[in-house]
Design goal:
By secondary structure, the chain is mostly beta strands. Helix content is 8%, strand content 33%. The chain has two helices and 34 strands. The chain has helices at 5-12, 75-87, and strands spanning 3-4, 16-17, 22-23, 25-26, 36-39, 54-58, 69-72, 95-96, 101-102, 107-108, 113-114, 119-120, 124-126, 131-132, 137-140, 144-147, 153-156, 161-164, 169-170, 175-177, 183-186, 191-192, 197-198, 203-204, 209-210, 215-216, 221-222, 227-228, 233-234, 239-240, 245-246, 251-252, 261-263, 268-269. The strands form six sheets. The chain has a ten-stranded mixed sheet, with no helix packed on it. An eight-stranded parallel sheet has the order 9-12-15-20-23-26-29-32, with no helix packed on it. Strand 33 (261-263) and strand 34 (268-269) form a beta hairpin. The longest helix is centred in the N-terminal third of the chain and has 13 residues, at 75-87.
């Protein structure tokens, strides 16, 4: 569906300069054609060789005659915001790769993409417009051990489930454990990158972004809008506050307040 460039500018509350054009898709600045939108962070549009119909660029940049621009203080952010609003593509119906295993009892929403070699257990509920990357396991039978006298091991039987909200993206080779009795929860519009371990009864609130190689211990809570950077490890029962940021390679053993930034091992506030 084509969208008028003026409509995109109004949605972004950003100045529109040049002719009004219709945009059907997005592309890289060097490959975009006159029906596509791209973004540019530089300041010299005169030297830019691009056939893009619309370029989202920095504020105050003077476009050459005939070029259509939308000017914003953060062109990349504005571009991605517009993509999410107008050009985010979902399949017309749920597509499950032939090599994926979805156990009887699992519930998969509409317009989902389930990749190769994915495993989804019987107690899993996945919302609409979710994407699950290759090799990911959701709701498997994790190993829960309590150590007794003389190093004797007592194994928990996991009976809970996993709830995944709408518009969640989960990358490749992730492991999301179900809980012992209750549910592990991933809220709406969360993004989980590749190779992430989510322990039992973790509660991830909406719009949380977790980068690659992160480990979340059991019963961790991550509040809305928090950001967890690559290779961080978060211990059991820890609460990450709303809008907080955990730095790369950090080990978090204590609660993190809202909007705080922590880094290091053990992590401390910056």
């Amino acid at each position: 569906m084509a969208v008028k460039s003026k409509e995109i500018a109004e949605y972004l509350s950003a100045p529109h300069k040049g002719p009004v054009v219709y945009i059907e898709d997005v592309n890289d600045i060097s490959r975009a054609d006159n029906n596509e939108m791209s973004f540019y962070i530089g300041t010299n549009l005169d030297e830019l060789e691009s056939s893009a119909g619309v370029i989202i660029c920095s504020e105050g940049v003077a476009p050459p005659e005939g070029m259509t621009t939308i000017q914003h203080s953060d062109p990349q952010f504005a571009f991605l915001k517009a993509v999410k609003q107008y050009f985010k593509q979902s399949p017309n119906q749920t597509k499950i790769h032939s090599s994926a295993v979805v156990e009887s009892g699992a519930e998969i929403g509409e317009q989902c993409l389930i990749g190769p070699n994915v495993y989804i257990g019987s107690t899993v509920e996945i919302g609409d417009q979710c994407r699950i990357g290759a090799g990911t396991t959701i709701g498997g039978d994790p190993v829960g051990i309590v150590e007794g006298d003389d190093y004797e091991m007592y194994r928990h039987k996991y009976r809970g489930g996993v709830e995944v909200g709408n518009q969640v993206e989960i990358g490749q080779n992730c492991c999301i454990n179900r809980s012992v009795f209750n549910n592990t929860i991933i809220g709406e519009e969360c993004i989980l990158d590749d190779q992430i371990h989510v322990g039992h009864r973790v509660n991830i609130k909406p719009r949380v972004w977790i980068s690659c190689n992160v480990t979340l211990g059991g019963r961790v809570t991550i509040e809305e809008g928090a950001r967890i950077n690559p290779a961080a490890a978060i211990g059991q029962y820890v609460n990450i506050g709303e809008g907080a940021t955990v730095g790369m390679n950090s080990t978090v053993l204590d609660d993190v307040p809202a909007e705080a930034k922590v880094v290091g091992t053990p992590a401390s506030r910056v």
